[in-house]
Amino acid sequence: MPSEALDHVLEFPGGYTRSVGPVIGRFLSELRDGRLVGVRTAGGRVLVPPVEYDPDGGEPVTEEFVEVGPIGTVQTWSWVPRPLKNHPLDRPFAWALIRPDGADTALLHALDLGVVDEGADPPRFLKTGMRVRPRYRAERTGAIGDIECFVPEVTMINAPTRLEYRLRGGRALDRFLEGISEGRILGHRCGVCGEVIVPMKGLCSRDGVPTTEEVELPDTGTVTTFAVNNLPDPRAPEVPFVSAYVLLDGAGLPMLALVAGIPADQVRMGMRVKAAWRPREEWDRSMANIKWFEPLDEPDVPFDTIKDYV
């Protein structure tokens, strides 16, 4: 009968001690101090990790050591989706051949891509040519493990940005906001085309002529087109919310506003709406006086009527 296979373990309880020589010894000593060095060959190439003989021709290397990196370039890589217990990292990582800047050869080490779910595919930004740098351990002993791993160079940041500024609107917009502060929506009628422009701008963009004739418009209108938004906005009552172009009754141009008081998936082109004003005591010289537009109990406007305003 065949014998049963047995597991065997070969262990050196006190550790296995060996001499590393002056070339590798210099490399490990520099690692202990947080530096990467290579050795120059007689032909001028810089080998990292350094070895005592040039692998191309077998000649002894020179005694010239060259500091390289610390930044390097990934030459090739292999993804490890499920690390084993003896791997250097406890989450998915890559083995990579990394050529430090100033070196002509590459060294093999672990590449940490951050937190990745076990079994996941490699991140899309992992690729040959990416720039990386070593992450050293806090306590180093003079071994290749003094480099815990390599990590990508920082190439992008997400910086929170907020800009405050004071806007002076000019004569026409100032007059428009004065009307809003009184609960009135004012527009300008063009003397050439006859269209009423709201908010008033002091100019007809179609005919290029100044406008001065004021027209007070009702706060009712028609949705010409709209968009459903799924990102939070402090002005909106909930998410998702609808931003729409509303053609006020009597106006020649639609204005942008929020639409609420109806589920987002029920807003439609041609829907009749009315401004929902904030309480009078909250009014100021701002379009925030109108919270949004709400549906009117009126029939929708046919598309042919509003198609030129979409």
From TrEMBL:
<dbReference type="Pfam" id="PF01796">
    <property type="entry name" value="OB_ChsH2_C"/>
</dbReference>
<protein>
    <submittedName>
        <fullName>Zn-ribbon domain-containing OB-fold protein</fullName>
    </submittedName>
</protein>
<dbReference type="InterPro" id="IPR052513">
    <property type="entry name" value="Thioester_dehydratase-like"/>
</dbReference>
<dbReference type="InterPro" id="IPR002878">
    <property type="entry name" value="ChsH2_C"/>
</dbReference>
<dbReference type="InterPro" id="IPR012340">
    <property type="entry name" value="NA-bd_OB-fold"/>
</dbReference>
<feature type="domain" description="ChsH2 C-terminal OB-fold">
    <location>
        <begin position="66"/>
        <end position="136"/>
    </location>
</feature>
<feature type="domain" description="ChsH2 C-terminal OB-fold">
    <location>
        <begin position="214"/>
        <end position="278"/>
    </location>
</feature>
